[in-house]
Amino acid sequence: MSHSGGREPAVSLGLLDATMVGIGAMIGAGIFVLTGLAVDISGPAAIIAFALNGGVTTFTALSYAELAAAIPRNGGGYAYVREVFSAPVAFVMGWTRWFTYMIAGSLYALGFASNFVEFGHIYGYALPGPPVLYALGAVVTLVALNALSTEASGRGETAITLLKIAILGVFVAFGLTAADAGEFDPLFTEGPLSVLPAMGLTFIAFQGYDLIATVTEEVENPQVNIPRAILLSVAVTVVVYLLVVFVAIGTLGADGLAGAGETAIAQAAEGFMPTFPILGTGAALIAFGAVFSTVSALNAVVIGSSRVAFAMGRERQLPARLGRFHHRYGTPLVAILASAVVMLVAVLVVPIRIVGNLASLFSLLGFIIVNYALIRLRRRQPNLQRPFEVPLYPVTPVLGIVCNVLLGLFIDWFTWALAIGWLVVGGGVYLLLSRRGDVGPVGPPEIQEPEPIESTEGAND
């Protein structure tokens, strides 16, 4: 595989590191702040909404797993769409995925800031300066780490994610002894259909496994480890979510959680968790976990957004300098910095709630296209080597398309209007770059078998 200048990507991430990129992105602040809001919509049936979202997510995750094994290239969904669609369609996919990851980064940065300030308040410290300064500092710190070393950022992601899983494990371990299953009877206090809007609200918490595919070329034995990492990250996340939601409802009750809103998990913890040395109350432990959750989620999208920009630069759908690895650091330095600029601007000026909805919509649209790309690739290249294959094809990707379309219908019209506006902006950028000669031809790409990537011996051990 040829790269436009610079050095080859360093193969420095193992199966555990790749899996933690996905888990780190999915188990972010969402589980801490969305549980109470979901219960407010659907009562105890919120646990059904989380379970169904896990099923919907799995359909598309399986498609990502097959495509990642068959097309082991950085860029994730963009790389797969580029393989089977014309360049303009691929540009739209890359443009929206890059935007989604960058905006998610600003959301996580602001989430980190609010949780960090709250953590200080728990111990009686009034941290100086506005929270936005801490958000900017988090972005700058993680961008610098990613710019200097993929291995360091990957290892850091692994450590932080394992820590927050351990914190949630403590919450669940104490909570299971105190939870009352009677809190789920009756289950549908707000009616069975109330599960659907709760699914729309919480679906964003299941996004992130696709980030694993954006670093394919930097993972050992990617054709085996990337599919494993995708499916492992989804499985672990779904199990953690269901256990946390069960404990939260079973201990605080649906009415209590609904009243607690965004602090529901922390308030539930206060009711049954003991006081811990150094950290203090259960609420303090949850706040500590929320801080680490947002840090790991932010790091994951810094990794993912830069790899999408890198892939688009390498395919000459964005300026070529984005598609190069730095000769010294072995990281896509220019792509990382370009992504960081948008994140920093979004932290300062973008209305986060609106653009958060926009990011969710673009994710749903991207997942629809990826599922269709799997179907189209199967038809166009039936003999392509596929180390992993989606079970029950074509039922699985078709269900992925249908479910994502249905969830998209629950997103408000204003968000759809903004999405169309952003696509128009992307079209203008593409035409401008085309006229300047900064991007490649607009015709369909030549379909070729992807070149195998050298793996580290013993990666499967």
UniProtKB/TrEMBL annotation:
Signal peptide range: none
Domain of life assignment: Archaea
Record has Membrane as a keyword: yes
Transmembrane feature ranges: 20-39, 46-65, 132-149, 161-179, 191-209, 229-249, 283-310, 331-352, 358-375, 387-407, 413-433
Pfam families reported in the protein's UniProt record: AA_permease_2
Name the UniProt record assigns to this protein: Amino acid permease
Topology within the bilayer: Multi-pass membrane protein
Entry GO CC: plasma membrane
Entry keywords, A to Z: Cell membrane, Membrane, Transmembrane, Transmembrane helix
Subcellular location: Cell membrane
GO molecular function (one): transmembrane transporter activity
